[in-house]
Specification:
Number of helices: 12
Oligomer: single chain
Order of helices and strands: HHHHHHHHHHHH
Distance between the termini: 33 Å
Number of strands: 0
Length: about 260
């Protein structure tokens, strides 16, 4: 077999391993999935009228349309926390040391985690999206091409954040530390344009919300799903995806290739 065939075979094996782990231990995935669902219901049914009134008197239906893209991005950020925990568990429980002694394509271990996490992110987004549709979200103005672009953007964001999460898991001494290190991936969407427009924020707080990866991604996804203008946010979102993917890959590979102490 060629080196490429061996790499593909080993990566496929590691992917199956990680998917089996997710199926056998669903509690972590369910807990991470529960957070965006609760946030969606909370901001729609508890804060919805107040939040919509602060956005120029929009009704609750308009606020649902506004908040759902942000919740979907929050779902991706929350799901990859489980990846950091899973990678940390592998590093501390000795299985990686065992893999190092075997004749396998070493990067396939990380590839299995990454591909498995991206698939879990996409499935989580679909489930949260189904809840959003059930409570009234509609995307009637988006074309089929815009739906396809929205799916592609979600996959790119998931890929970028997963590589960052893998790096966080590799540098964490245990699962608890990995969960804490990955916490910014959950917090950043909360201080973005997910729930209110940036223009309505205090002047000193706007740069925090504006100059981060989630805001352009949310604004791009919002424009695609609602059929509105995207402006420069699309290019910013793609640039963030490319930069974080490269950074996460280089960081993770360098850390993983380091000889264990």
């Amino acid at each position: 077999m060629s080196a490429l065939s061996l790499a593909a075979r080993d990566s496929s094996t590691m992917l199956r391993r990680n998917l089996l782990h997710a199926r056998r231990y669903p509690s972590l995935t369910l807990n991470l999935l529960l957070t965006p669902v609760v946030m969606l219901l909370l901001f729609v049914y508890v804060f919805g009228d107040v939040m919509s009134a602060g956005m120029g008197g929009a009704d609750r239906a308009a606020y649902i349309a506004y908040v759902v893209p942000g919740i979907l991005m929050m779902t991706v950020g929350g799901t990859v926390v489980g990846t950091a925990v899973s990678v940390s568990n592998d590093m501390t429980e000795g299985i990686i040391a065992r893999f190092r002694t075997m004749a396998i394509h070493r990067p396939s271990i990380l590839v299995g985690h990454v591909v498995g996490s991206v698939l879990q992110c996409l499935m989580s987004v679909l489930l949260v999206g189904a809840v959003a549709v059930a409570i009234g979200f509609r995307s009637t103005d988006a074309t089929a091409l815009e739906w396809l672009a929205a799916f592609g953007l979600t996959a790119l964001i998931a890929l970028a954040l997963t590589w960052i999460a893998v790096g966080m898991g590799l540098v964490s001494p245990n699962a608890e530390a990995a969960s804490n290190n990955a916490l910014p991936l959950v917090v950043l969407p909360l201080i973005s344009s997910a729930f209110v427009p940036i223009d309505s924020m205090p002047g000193w707080f706007r740069p925090i919300a504006e100059y981060q990866p989630f805001t352009p991604a949310i604004e791009t996804l919002r424009g695609l799903l609602l059929g509105t203008e995207i402006g420069h946010n699309g290019w910013l979102a793609l640039a963030w995806c490319a930069g974080l993917t490269v950074l996460g890959y280089v960081w993770s590979k360098a850390r993983f290739d380091r000889d264990p102490s």
